[in-house]
Design a protein that fits this description.
About 45% of the residues lie in helices and about 15% in strands. It is of the alpha/beta class and about 375 residues long. The chain has a 5-stranded parallel β-sheet, sandwiched between helices.
Length: about 375
């Protein structure tokens, strides 16, 4: 059957028409539908979702909605994969725009990681001590790799607990961290690990660009990956913010660069940033280092309470991958689901995210290990 729902036909509709279509679909589908929206989504999408949060929390919430047969994740590709990993097999997961990927997650390609692992096995005397850990902002294949090789996942809020649990069990363990070097460096450094003990593996260079002697004393091997949004924040921007307002408090996400995190007053995951700002005293001023759509939403929410909130870098801290999803994409997905519910014809469904069963099992192992040591 030819796909009757072309995206182009939705792009020409007004926001009011699209919102009406979305609301009508929600009314018809009821609790068979669950719509998730990551914090970095636009306001127009956030207004349409059932739950807002970070990637792992949203996936966990989706799995709890046992009556929901259809889970629509307004986020990026790895997030929808996580929802599929954690949800029941009967639940279908959709990504409204398949081009909504995460550049950082894509920096750790599974073939590159496997080649790295093989090289370390051949050249590193302490190879048996390696424990792979991946940020949840990684592909299902990378989560599965960690699960298969005795490792686990972490979030930006529980990263330290994960490291502590690994080193408590084996003080000589070497953590291979994927894919974001900055989260691992900023976390481990605050645990007393020296920068010289955390060499960076460059997947584009032979042998990761590392001399073998760098591996003799390392405690962690950092994958050369980063979040392009959080790389936008600079020391100069923070210094200027403090010149403009000597009383300003600076809070940044630990995906930011090392020097930026060292200059900030606080580090925090997305949820930690939100909780900190929401608990701020009236009259306080905050400069925030994370995605601009969330910062603007916080600024609007806190203004009536007398709390001033602005971005460290307001002009270039948007996640354009998140911005790919708009009302036309969401309306189209819901219409497809409506047609499927009416006709039972699976060919009308688009953008379904399906993680292979083998990867799903191993990725679940990595997530379960994380939850076991951080609960």
């Amino acid at each position: 059957m030819t796909q009757p729902f072309s995206l182009e036909s939705y792009l020409s509709l007004t926001s009011d028409t699209l919102s009406q279509k979305i609301e009508q679909a929600r009314q018809v589908l009821g609790n068979k539908l669950c719509i998730l929206g990551h914090h970095y989504q636009s306001d127009e999408i956030i207004e349409q979702v059932d739950f807002t949060g970070d990637s792992l929390r949203l996936s966990q919430l989706a799995a709890q909605q046992k009556q929901a047969n259809h889970i629509v994740f307004c986020g990026v590709h790895f997030m929808a994969e996580s929802a599929d990993i954690l949800s029941d097999n009967r639940q279908r997961v959709y990504l409204p725009e398949m081009q909504a990927g995460c550049p950082m997650a894509d920096m750790a390609d599974i073939l590159q990681v496997e080649r790295c692992h093989a090289w370390l096995k051949h050249h590193m005397a302490r190879f048996e001590q390696i424990v792979p850990v991946c940020y949840v902002n990684s592909t299902a294949a990378i989560k599965a790799f960690c699960g298969r090789h005795g490792g686990m996942c972490c979030t930006s809020s529980n990263c330290r607990k994960v490291f502590e649990s690994i080193w408590a069990e084996n003080p000589d363990a070497i953590i291979l961290f994927l894919p974001d070097q900055h989260l691992a460096r900023n976390t481990a450094c605050r645990m007393g690990v020296g920068l010289e003990q955390m060499p960076v593996w460059d997947p584009q260079a032979p042998g990761g660009g590392l001399p073998t002697e760098a591996l003799d004393t390392c405690r962690m091997i950092l994958w050369k990956g980063h979040c392009h949004v959080h790389m936008k924040f600079t020391v100069e921007q923070i210094e200027q913010a403090r010149r403009d307002d000597p009383d300003v408090k600076v809070i940044v996400h630990p995906e930011s660069q090392f020097e930026v995190c060292n200059l900030a007053d606080q580090l925090g995951s997305t949820d930690q940033i939100i909780r900190t700002i929401e608990a701020a005293d009236p009259g306080s001023s905050w400069c925030v280092g994370t995605e601009i759509k969330l910062v603007n939403r916080l600024a609007e929410r806190m203004a009536p309470k007398g709390v001033r909130v602005r971005s460290i870098s307001p002009d270039n801290s948007m996640c354009f991958s998140m911005a790919r999803i708009g009302l036309p994409h969401l309306a189209r997905i819901l219409d497809c689901i409506l047609e499927f519910e009416k006709s039972g014809d699976e060919s009308v469904l688009v953008n379904q995210i399906i993680v292979p069963d083998t990867d799903k099992v191993d990725a679940l192992t990595a997530l379960a290990r994380m939850l076991a040591v951080t609960a």
